[in-house]
């Protein structure tokens, strides 16, 4: 399986960069080939106006439930290649890990699914649908259309979404809370055109300073989000220690954590507001003028219970109402996505916990994720009564989205075994 994963990683399927459009299609072809080689009787592409998803189907034996296995084959850009220890699209095995872009997020997730199917020689004891998305790293922009167009293909009794992170090396997790997301481009303008800073500075406000003051209103002095109308909760099953957070994040000495309440709640069940980018005069092009217009991207992560449309309205209202000095503010909201909360109750959830316990030799930890996986909420909303499990092949050392992404091979093997055991335990469960 590792050799096949290396070949898949070698395809630079970066969905956000148009120059890699052909690579995205090549990765979809490779995923399709691997499923056919695993004896999948039906393999085809599902398309709804965006990147194609690969769909595979093993019909359920008489009286058995159907499990849908989800992952995605698209990956993030590499960033600065010079910072990588080895070439990102030449996956290499080193120190018990497989290094390369997509090894963990999320080609490794697909590989775990495939390993489980191979363990049954292509004849799983339950019905299996495989859905490998090609635009998750774009925020799954056509997933609504995909689910509308293919409701029968994407219906199941149990969903296994292998796209989260384990609690630590050697300890598995089941993710039960996911935050939603809404973002906005905000443009602040104060002048029709730039003016000499010496001639008019002190009387005329520049747009960049006005933008900075507006962005500063997103938080209170403690760093809590100050946007009115957003849900928040301290209800978490597990908490993080400050020592662990400092080790994992690389927080610089003397820099304080922000916000109030349990750290896990601040990461999983409370909103965040982050300034991801600013457009203004670059430092290399500096001149003594008052900037006429400046723009930023604000990203707000939402509590699992938050309605994304209402959150977008709250964000827009906050930005418009807090403009300093009468500056003109224009807000362009992006596409929002909802979060989710899963209750680990009932026989199917117990089977998942037992499978992870047996494979890893330790009890799985119930965790949340601060990031967003839009399809989880969609699966849950469209399939009442089904169980949506969010599992992982990655660990806190995996550096997903970052430089030197890697997959721990021992935990990968355990994750594949856990999924194999889960299919066995679900057999006969109606």
In terms of topology, how is this protein built?
Elements (H helix, E strand, L loop, with lengths): L1 H8 L11 H17 L4 E5 L6 E6 L7 E7 L19 E3 L2 E3 L7 H13 L7 E7 L9 H7 L8 E5 L10 E6 L1 E10 L5 E2 H4 L6 H10 L25 H8 L13 H6 L3 E8 L9 E2 L2 E10 L5 H14 L6 E6 L6 E2 L5 H14 L4 E5 L4 H9 L4 E5 L14 E3 H18 L4
Parallel strand pairs: 3-6, 3-7, 7-17, 8-16
Antiparallel strand pairs: 1-2, 2-6, 4-5, 5-18, 8-15, 9-13, 9-14, 10-12, 11-13
Helix pairs in contact: 3-12, 10-12
Low-pLDDT stretches = none
SS elements, strand count: 18
Biggest sheet character: 6 strands, mixed
Beta-strand portion reads 15-25%
Cα-to-Cα separation, first versus last residue: 31 Å
Oligomer: single chain
Order of helices and strands: HHEEEEEHEHEEEEHHHHEEEHEEHEHEEH
Number of domains: 2
Mean pLDDT, all residues:
95
How are the strands of the biggest sheet laid out side by side? 1-2-6-3-7-17
Radius of gyration: 23 Å
Per CATH, the superfamily of the largest domain is Zn peptidases
């Amino acid at each position: 399986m590792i050799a096949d994963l290396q070949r898949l990683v070698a395809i630079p399927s970066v969905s956000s960069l148009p120059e890699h459009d052909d690579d995205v299609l090549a990765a979809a072809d490779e995923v399709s080939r691997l499923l056919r080689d695993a004896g999948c009787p039906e393999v085809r592409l599902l398309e709804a106006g965006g990147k194609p998803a690969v769909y595979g189907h093993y019909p359920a034996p008489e009286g058995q439930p159907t499990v849908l296995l989800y992952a995605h084959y698209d990956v993030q850009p590499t960033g600065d290649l010079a910072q990588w220890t080895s070439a990102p699209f030449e996956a290499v095995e080193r120190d018990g890990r497989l290094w390369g872009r997509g090894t963990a997020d999320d080609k490794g997730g697909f590989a775990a699914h495939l390993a489980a199917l191979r363990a049954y020689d292509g004849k799983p004891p339950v019905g299996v649908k495989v859905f490998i998305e090609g635009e998750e790293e774009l925020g799954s922009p056509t997933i609504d259309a995909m689910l509308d167009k293919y409701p029968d293909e994407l219906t199941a009794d149990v969903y296994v979404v292998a796209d989260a992170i384990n609690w630590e090396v050697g300890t598995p997790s089941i993710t039960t809370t996911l935050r939603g997301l809404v973002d906005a481009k905000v443009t602040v303008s104060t002048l029709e055109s730039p003016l000499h800073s010496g001639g008019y500075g002190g009387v005329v406000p520049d747009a960049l300073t006005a933008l900075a003051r507006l962005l500063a209103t997103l938080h209170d002095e403690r760093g809590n989000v100050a946007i009115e109308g957003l849900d928040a909760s301290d209800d978490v099953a597990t908490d993080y220690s400050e020592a662990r957070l400092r080790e994992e994040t690389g927080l610089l000495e003397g820099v304080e954590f922000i916000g109030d309440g349990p750290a896990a709640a601040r990461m999983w069940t409370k909103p965040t507001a982050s300034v991801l980018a600013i457009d203004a005069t670059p430092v290399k092009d500096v001149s003594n003028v008052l900037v006429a217009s400046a723009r930023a991207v604000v990203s707000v992560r939402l509590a699992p219970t938050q309605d994304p449309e209402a959150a977008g309205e709250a964000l827009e209202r906050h930005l418009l109402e807090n403009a300093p000095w009468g500056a003109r503010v224009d807000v362009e909201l992006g596409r929002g996505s909802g979060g989710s909360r899963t209750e680990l109750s009932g026989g199917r959830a117990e089977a998942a916990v037992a499978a992870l316990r047996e494979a890893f030799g330790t009890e799985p930890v119930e965790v949340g994720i601060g990031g967003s996986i839009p399809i989880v909420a969609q699966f849950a909303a469209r399939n009442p009564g089904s169980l949506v499990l969010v599992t992982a092949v990655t660990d806190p050392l995996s550096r997903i989205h970052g430089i030197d992404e890697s997959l721990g091979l021992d935990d990968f093997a355990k994750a594949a075994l856990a999924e194999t055991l889960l299919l066995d335990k679900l057999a006969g469960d109606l």
